[in-house]
Amino acid sequence: MPLDVDAEARLDAIAEATIEQATHAGPRAITIRTVAARLGGSTTKVTHYVRSRGGLMANAVRRVQQHWRPELAEVLAGRTGRDRLATFVDWWTTGTAQYDVFRLMWVEMLAMRDSDEVVGRALQQEAHAERDEVVAVLTESRIADPQLRADMLYLLLRGINISSVEDPETWPAERGRQAALALVELMPSTPTSSRQPD
Q: Among 22, 171, 162, which residue's Cα sits nearest to residue 105?
C-alpha cells in the first residue's frame, strides 16, 4: 500500500536528518534522539514514523536508492555496449562524500541484521536491487552469460564497499575502480549472429 504524501514527506525528512547525523558524527551516533534534534522537534515526531535505530538507517537506505536510480539512468543514457558497462563501473566505484557515508551506514547495518528484522529486510531488498542493476547493465551491454558474470561483478562491488570501510587507505575508490574495470574487460561479449545469404 503506497504511503500518503504527508507520511512520505516526513520519512524523507527523517532520512535526510539521519544522513546528516551520520555525515557529521558517524553512523554510530544515529539515534532517535539525535535525529529528532536535527529535525528540531521531539522524539515523538520521529517515532510516529520510525520506531528504532535500525529503522532510521533502513529508511535512509530507501531514500538513497530513490536518488541513485534516476541518477544512474541519466549517466547511462545513450551509452551502449562496453562503453555502457565501463560507465556503470565508473559511476558505481567513484566515491562521493555522501556515498562514503552510505557505505559506513551499510556496514553498520550488516552488524545489526540478525538482531533487527527491519534492518535485515532492508539489506536484503537493497542487495537484490543492486544485483538486478548489474544483471540489467550486463545484458544491455551484450555480455555473454550475464547471470553468471553478474554474480562475479556483484561480489566484487560488494567487496569494494566493505574493503573501503575497513581499510580505506589500502583500498581507495580508484583501486576498486581499476579492479572492477579489469574484471569486465575479461568478460566475453555475446557473439553477433550473422545470417548466411540465401
A: 22
Three cell numbers written together for 140: 544491455
6 CB neighbour count, 10 Å cutoff: 8
Instruction: Please give the Cα distance from 60 to 63 (Å, whole number).
Output: 5
pLDDT per position as a tens digit, 123-152 = 999 899 899 999 999 999 999 999 999 999
What's the rounded Cα separation, in Å, for the pair 66 and 38?
22
The DSSP 8-state label assigned to residue 143 in this structure reads B
3 Cβ neighbours under 8 A, 6+ residues apart: 11
User: Cα(108)–Cα(26) distance, rounded to whole angstroms?
Assistant: 10
Does residue 196 sit in helix, strand or coil?
Answer: coil
pLDDT, tens digit, for every residue of 11-52? 999 999 999 999 999 999 999 999 999 999 899 989 999 999
- Span between the terminal Cα atoms of the chain, in Å: 56
DSSP summary character for residue 194: -
Kindly report the average pLDDT of the chain as a whole number.
Answer: 89
What SS3 state is found at 115?
coil
| pLDDT score at 193 | 61
